[in-house]
Q: What sequence folds into this?
């Protein structure tokens, strides 16, 4: 059953990707990207990564779709004509893809218990996090407690990104007002 | 816009449950999937949905822009404030054990405080970005 669900989801993912490539109207591309994110969230649910799936569905399919649509509203919504010479981009894409596939060959098989990532600190977190923090959800315990510095860094990154966007978009507007007839 | 009755009524039905679910995800993050980040995105999505359907002015009446822009740094400060008490007690920064007499309870409080900081920053940043884009469109 899980194999069937995975096969359906991955096929739909491939179709969404091809649609993004072939679609010329950027509105359609944004909607397809949202569908891609939603399918990706479903794949993550099948992989039992519910936290990541929730983030992907809300950020990838929700917020970023709206931000991209808002960007389209401010700019034009048709893709520029394709460049004549496609050989170099095709070569770069093919070689990067081949390198990534080659890299997966040296990964341990999916889901095995004795993979290196399950040997290092994971057993400690799984056994001790309830005693250390009193929080049953190990993901929350690791994110907010054991890896508190990392999460602080992430919050600072979001803070910086928000300030940056606000300064860029609002600063420009104020100058437009002062300049009077600066058409945008 | 004025004629979208189904959208307006439907959104009004969805909004309270969306906010309630965001709060559930936040406060239940210790037990189930999710946490401050997901809850922040959901509560921002609530404001954005309201702004999309009822107009940006109505959204700014409910959630003023000045408040949103003050909340962006406030969340980071809330996060930092969870780590400061440990420094006075001679522990490491962000060691939540000192927040309560029982170290385990202290860790629980610390995690909730930290997640609240994440919630505040994430929700206000997403809303502020949406406001910034919407403002550009009108000028």
A:
């Amino acid at each position: 059953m899980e194999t069937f669900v995975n096969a359906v989801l991955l096929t739909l993912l491939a179709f969404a990707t091809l649609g993004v490539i072939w679609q010329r109207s950027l509105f359609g591309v944004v909607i397809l990207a949202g569908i891609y994110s939603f399918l990706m969230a479903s794949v993550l649910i099948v992989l039992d990564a519910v936290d990541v799936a929730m983030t992907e569905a809300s950020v990838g399919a929700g917020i970023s779709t709206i931000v991209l649509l808002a960007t389209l509203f401010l700019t034009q919504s048709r893709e520029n004509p394709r460049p004549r010479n496609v050989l170099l981009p095709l070569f770069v894409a093919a070689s990067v893809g081949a390198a990534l596939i080659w890299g997966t060959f040296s990964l341990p098989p999916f889901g095995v218990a004795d993979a290196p990532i399950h040997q290092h600190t994971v057993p400690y977190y799984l056994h001790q996090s309830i005693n250390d923090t009193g929080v049953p959800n190990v993901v929350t315990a690791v994110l907010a407690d054991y890896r508190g510095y990392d999460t602080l860094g992430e919050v600072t990154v979001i803070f910086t990104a928000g300030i940056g966007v606000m300064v860029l978009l609002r600063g420009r507007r104020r100058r437009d007002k002062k300049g009077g007839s600066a058409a945008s | 816009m004025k004629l979208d009755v189904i959208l307006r009524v439907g959104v009004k039905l969805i909004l309270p449950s969306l906010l309630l679910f965001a709060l559930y995800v936040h406060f239940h993050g210790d037990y189930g999937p999710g946490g401050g980040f997901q809850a922040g995105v959901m509560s921002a999505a609530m404001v954005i949905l309201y702004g999309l359907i009822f107009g940006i002015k109505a959204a700014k009446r409910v959630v003023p822009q000045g408040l949103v822009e003050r909340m962006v740094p406030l969340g980071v400060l809330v996060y930092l404030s969870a780590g400061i008490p440990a420094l006075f007690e001679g522990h490491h920064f962000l060691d939540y054990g000192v927040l309560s007499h029982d170290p385990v309870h202290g860790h629980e409080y610390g995690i909730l405080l930290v997640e609240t900081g994440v919630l505040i920053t994430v929700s206000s940043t997403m809303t502020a970005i949406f406001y910034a884009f919407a403002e550009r469109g009108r000028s």
Summary: Chain A touches chain B through 48 residues (CB under 8 Å).
